Amino acid sequence: MHPTLAKDFESLPSLLYQAMSLSADYLDGLNEHPVSRPAPVTAETTLPEDGVGTTGALKAFYATHANTVVASSGPRYWGFVTGGTTPAAIAGDWLSTVFDQNTQSTKGPGGSTAAVEVETIGLLLDLLGLPATFQGGFVTGATMANFTGLAVARQWAGRQLGFDAARSGVQPGIVVLSATPHSSAVKALSLLGLGSSNIIPLRTLDADREALDPADLEEKLEQYKHSAVILVSSGGTVNSVDFDDMTAIAGLRGRYRFYWHVDAAFGAFAALSPGHRPLLEGWDAADSIAVDCHKWMNVPYDSAFYLVRKEHASLQVQTFQNSNAPYLGDPEADFTYLNFGPENSRRFRALPVWISLQAYGRSGFRWMVEHSIERAQSFARRLAGETPFRVCAPVHLNVVCFTIPGADAGALTAVLDILNARGRVFFTPSAYRGTPCIRAAFVNWRTTEPDIDIAIGELRAAAGQLSGTATED
Ligand SMILES: *Cc1c(COP(=O)(O)O)cnc(C)c1O
C-alpha cells in the first residue's frame, strides 16, 4: 500500500474523530458564521508529488479555502430556496458516505439498499398524502426530477404520435404548455431535445398571479388536440409560491389526453400543513411529480426524488434502460434503478431521508413547514412598517418578495451589496411579474423570530447607508 494511505488507514478512527470535531465546531458556530463572503482570488493548480495525509489536507483546507464556505444551512440564508441540515439528516448522510453503496438493486446478491430507497419513497408518499400509484427514486435535485418526469412525458408523447423518441429521436408534434415554469424545467426541455423556447405560454389567472388560467388551458387543449400535449404545472412557483389549480387540471383529464407533470420542488410540503393542503388538492392525478429533499426537508445536498405513475413503467424503462446488456434481465420484472432513472452508479441517497423520517416523524416535518410559513408571514408583516421597503408579491406560503418602490434592479443590487458585505442575512435578487425585487425564502428549521429581528435591523442599516450615500452625492 502507498505509505501515506497506509498511515491514514492505521489512524482511520482518529481521522474520523477529527472530522467529527470539525463538524461539531462548525455547526456550533453556524448561527454566527457569515452568510456571504467575498469570492477567493487565488487558485493553486500545481499538484505536489507527495501528499500530506488526511490531517495535513484538512489543515491545508482550513488554511486556504475554508473562507469559501458560507452559513447556507444556517438560520438567515434566505436566498434561492435553501434548506439546512437536521442532526438526523447529517448522521444519515455521513453513514451513506461510509457505507458507500451503489444503490441499484432491491434484491442483491451484490447489495440491496435500493429496497430501502423503495421503502423511503413509500414513506414519502405517505407523508405527502399521495397514493401508492406512484413509484419513485432519488436524483440530485428537482432539476433532474423534472428531467426524469419530462423524459417519460417525451416518450409518452412520441407514442401518441407514432414514434419512439428514446430510440429514434424527437419528431414534430409535441406541444409543451406551461404558465410559470421554473428555469430548471425549461432546462430539462433543452436537455430532452424538446427545445427550451418551444413552450407555449398559458395565461395566468390575473395580473397578480403566477398560476395558470384553467380556461386558457382548456382552450389550448382543444386547439392542440391533434398534437401530443405535455403540461408542466407548478406546485409552488418560486416567487409568490402560487399553485396551479390541480383540481381544475385533473378535471380536464376526462375530456382531453395530455401528460401532466407537476414541479412541486418545495411546494409539495404544503401538503403537511392542514391549512395549506388544499393548494395541492387533485395533484394525485398527475403523471409525474418532482420534489426536493434538500429544500424543505432540510436534508443536505444533493437530494430530490421523482414520482412517476406505475402505469408508465414501460415508457420509463424505454427511456432509461441502460443498453440491452443481457445481465439486466427483464427490466420491469427485475427492478433496478439503473433502468428507471438518468444515473447508473448512484449514491445511497435515500438513507439521510429515511433516518430523518424515522427521527422526526410526521409531526416533526409538519412543524418545520408550519414554522417556516409563520416566519415568512412574520417577516412580511414586519416589512410593512419598514420604509422604504414594500412587499410586492402575495405571500401565499413561505416566500416574501419585496422591493423599494420606484427602484430599478441596480438600486436593489446596491442594497444586496451592503447586506452581503455585512454577512448577517442573505437574500437573492429576482423579478416578480417584471418588477425587480428581493426574495426571501423560508425553509430552514433553525430560523427563529430573533433572526427576523436581525434581518430587519440589517435592512434598516442598508437603507440608512444607501440614503447616506445619496445625501453625500
Ligand atoms: C429549486 C427548484 C427547482 C430546481 O431544483 P434543484 O434542486 O435546484 O435542482 C425546480 N423547481 C422549483 C419550483 C424549485 O424551487
Please tell me about this protein's structure.
The chain has 473 residues and is α/β, with parallel strands linked by helices. Helix content is 41%, strand content 12%. Helix 6 (142-161) packs across helix 8 (183-191), helix 6 crosses helix 11 and helix 13 crosses helix 14. 44% of the residues are buried. The mean pLDDT is 95. Bound molecules: pyridoxal-5'-phosphate.
User: What's the level 1 CATH class of the largest domain?
Assistant: Alpha Beta
Following the backbone from N to C, one meets helices and strands in this order, namely: HHHHHEHHEHEHEHEEEHHEEHEEH
| Spatial arrangement of strands, main beta sheet | 1-7-6-5-4-2-3
**Number of E-state strands:** 11
Q: Please state the structural category.
A: alpha/beta
Overall body shape: globular
Q: Tell me what the CATH architecture of the largest domain is.
A: 3-Layer(aba) Sandwich
CATH homologous group name of the largest domain: Type I PLP-dependent aspartate aminotransferase-like (Major domain)
Alpha carbon gap, first and last residue: 67 Å
Strand content: 5-15%
Let me know the average pLDDT: 95
Assign the CATH topology of the largest domain: Aspartate Aminotransferase, domain 2
Total of helices = 14
Unreliable sequence segments: none
**What is the number of independent domains?**
2
Describe the sheet with the most strands.
Answer: 7 strands, mixed
